[in-house]
Specification:
Layout (H helix, E strand, L loop, with lengths): L1 E2 L1 H23 L1 H7 L1 H26 L16 E2 L10 H29 L12 H18 L10 H22 L12 H32 L8
Antiparallel strand pairs: 1-2
Length: about 230
């Protein structure tokens, strides 16, 4: 199967945008109150599916050399995809292979939340929050993502990939904060910190959304500045 690098990148960015937007929308209390717990849970589940699809395509992109580092002319040239290519020395591949199972954990937890909300009374329904397993994998993936564009001490405010990597890191940290804050306190039945629980998901998803939007200009800029002679084979 062949794909154009520009089209693949656009598909990845678009899927991440839709998935992130669903997470943002589902985290807004006014939306949850307006549509009800079941519809809100469906929003999160749909968002997780888009995230998984984007993450899988990003993994394929990372393990297909012809999909990265191309020049502006080659952006629209169809290239064969590599559905499996282990690249342990490629930090972008390490980020993608770590993030993908993280999205599967979010699939499972959002589906569980949907099943629960569909089977209980309105007053017993709960808003989905990132689970600890998926959040941990997202954090690890974000570390690899930063290392793929430099180091933790790099300061590159003019680099869009640098901004995307750090937005993903901040989003992952906020998702982890939400996961930790959503643990129920034994005895009281209350979550540890409701404000962090809600804000972590909302602002974390916003970070992912902004990072996904920046993928469009980042890819275009990279293509125009790439050296055609340095095209990967």
């Amino acid at each position: 199967m062949k794909a154009r690098p520009a089209h693949l990148n656009a598909a990845i960015a678009s899927l991440f945008i839709v998935g992130s937007a669903c997470f943002v929308l589902g985290s807004v209390s006014a939306y949850a109150d307006a549509v009800g717990g079941v519809a809100d849970a469906v929003t999160f589940f749909v968002g997780s599916i888009f995230f998984t699809a984007a993450s899988f395509l990003q993994l394929v992109q990372a393990q297909t050399p012809a999909m990265t580092g191309v020049d502006a002319v080659l952006l629209t040239e169809p290239e064969p995809l590599r559905w499996w290519n282990v690249s342990p020395h490629n930090r972008s591949w390490l980020a993608a292979i770590t993030q993908f199972p993280g999205t599967l954990f979010f699939n499972a937890s959002t589906l569980a939340a949907l099943a629960r909300n569909a089977s209980v009374q309105q007053q017993d329904r709960h808003v989905w929050r990132p689970d600890i397993y998926g959040s941990t994998l997202f954090l690890v993936a974000a570390v690899f993502g930063i290392l793929a564009v430099g180091t933790f001490w790099s300061w590159r405010p003019r680099s869009l990939p640098w901004w995307i990597a750090w937005l993903n890191m901040i989003g992952s940290v906020l998702f982890m904060a939400s996961a930790l804050a959503s643990f129920v306190v034994p005895g009281s039945g209350d979550v540890r910190n409701l404000w962090i629980d809600v804000a972590g998901t909302l602002f974390g998803a916003l970070c992912f959304l902004i990072g996904a939007v920046l993928m469009f200009p980042a890819w275009t800029r990279a293509g125009h500045h790439a050296d055609p002679a340095a095209r990967p084979t």
